[in-house]
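Structure first, sequence second, as always.
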């Protein structure tokens, strides 16, 4: 878990790819014996790099080779990402705009878990992350860059009744 990763000071090198398909003891196979790059694709599907997701057959495992993946450790931003131990590199088969969308989604999904873990361990809620991140990822809850009323156009008070017991 993320909390144990912090407590035990696990290095990033101990993080396996999210799906586990980077492990030598993991294989995705369909009912026809086709070996696939991923458990979420079919033998007929093509990867974004135009390579087939079918990488061999169980009848000839010696020829099975995975050539369409980029492990998180080979991406420039993943090794220094604060949510790597939660996101685990997202999908290793995506590149370009599809990878960027997947990374953005995985980061957004992991950020509440990251914040909850830090709060659990320290009693403090993180609101800003310093480091080599895009600016829009540093403000954890989007609270530090509040738009001014002039930037929003006209403003109108929103009445909220206060009810006491």
């Amino acid at each position: 878990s993320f909390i144990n990763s912090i407590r035990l000071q696990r290095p990033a090198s101990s993080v396996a790819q999210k799906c586990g398909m980077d492990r030598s003891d993991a294989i995705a196979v369909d009912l026809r014996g086709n070996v696939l790059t991923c458990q979420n694709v079919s033998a007929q599907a093509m990867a974004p790099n135009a390579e087939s997701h079918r990488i061999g057959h169980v009848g000839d495992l010696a020829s099975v080779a995975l050539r369409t993946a980029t492990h998180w450790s080979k991406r420039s931003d993943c090794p220094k990402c604060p949510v790597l131990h939660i996101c685990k590199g997202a999908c290793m088969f995506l590149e370009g705009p599809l990878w960027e969308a997947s990374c953005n989604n995985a980061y957004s999904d992991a950020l509440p878990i990251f914040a909850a873990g830090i709060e659990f361990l320290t009693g403090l809620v993180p609101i800003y992350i310093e480091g080599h991140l895009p600016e829009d990822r540093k403000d954890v809850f989007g609270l530090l860059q509040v738009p001014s009323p002039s930037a929003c156009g006209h403003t109108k008070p929103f009445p909220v009744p206060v009810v006491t017991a």
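Margin note: The radius of gyration is 21 Å.
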